[in-house]
Amino acid sequence: MAWWRPAPRRSPPDSAAPAAAPLTSYFPAPDTAQVLTGGVQVVPITTPKGKFNVWTKRFGHNPRIRLLLLNGGPGATHEYFECMESFLPREGIEFIYYGQLGCGNSDNPKDTSMWSLPRYVEEVEQVRQALKLDKDNFYLLGHSWGSILAAEYALKYQQHLKGLIISNMMMSIPAYNKYAAEVLAPQMKPEVLREIRQLEARKDFQNPRYMELLEPNFYAEHLCRVPLPEPAARSLGKTNQSLYVTMQGPSEFGASGKLVNWDRTADLPKLAVPVLSIGGKYDTMAPEHMRMVARQVQHGSALICPNGSHMSFYDDQPTYMRGLTKWILAVDRGETKVAL
Asked: Partners of 163 in the beta sheet?
């Protein structure tokens, strides 16, 4: 789940999907009887520590397909998903940006006790209710940490889902840590890895040398293999470090925070909703694990981006966007497993 602290846009993918809905349907005439906000809806949520507001913004309108986006980090913002605007509208797919509590435009209680996976699950459920999403239209896409949250939500509330997308996240932190230590780390030059390990042993994570080593030797290989696009740089530059360190831990080689023992691999067969598992050949997450996720759920499809890393929607954009839209439109037609 590591993050980089901007690749020219490629041509849009071909699509065999049905023609998109007319623009008058996707962008309906505004209701002049109310004050318009460009799709922004601030959702009040109730937590054990009181009431807060989280920010959402709807893009487009399709009563059958409403895709809620859960950003990663933990603690980044919705902004790195802005690439979706170049692909999903042409397919008539409505999508919704959402700032989790502590992220982006949403309230930040600055209370580490609020950074809790079960509490975030209940937050997503409150957002779902406020946005009137249901089993006939609700698709949930989580990326990285957002996939942990999406999986936890689905395991408790899948009756409200039409489809689930697990993007670039293994379903076991112990397995992720093992992959990072045994597969990713040895790919680095020994002298580089040795210096990184020395800095981590001293807990010297704020040392500028730590990032100097990680950016060309790790991030450029496994996080994003093209120059970081502006929306991603803008998003990751706003990461809530309190949330990130509390949940993920300070190291970029595996997790050591509250998520250190999280493992839902054994529970994957409980998921009956259609699931799309997305990975990248060069991802921080093991591609074979992402294929396994698709096999273990009841109705799974796998999409492995051959040129992609952790942010495959940027560095293997044609593969990622073509597969994502094809899968969503197929599930909308009633299919449960889709060949990608």
From this structure: 139
Return d(Cα 190, Cα 192) in angstroms, integer.
Answer: 5
Are 319 and 312 contacting, i.e. CB atoms less than 8 angstroms apart? yes
- Say which of 78, 299, 310, 315 is annotated catalytic: 310
Share of the chain above pLDDT 70, in %: 93
Average pLDDT over residues 272-286: 98
Task: Identify the pLDDT of residue 24.
Answer: 77
Active site residue 143: no
Over range 326-330, report the average pLDDT.
98
Q: Which of 107, 283, 316, 332 is catalytic?
A: 283
Catalytic residue among 144, 167, 277, 301: 144
pLDDT for 1 equals 59
> In which element (H, E) is residue 46 found?
strand 40-47
**Active site (annotated) includes residue 299:** no
Architecture of domain 33-332: 3-Layer(aba) Sandwich (3.40)
Rounded distance between C-alpha atoms, residue 228 and residue 225, angstroms: 8
Model confidence at 121, pLDDT cuts 50, 70, 90, reads: very high
Contacts of 110 (CB under 8 A, 6+ apart): 242
Catalytic residue status for 332: no
Cα angle value 254/257/259 (rounded, 5°): 80
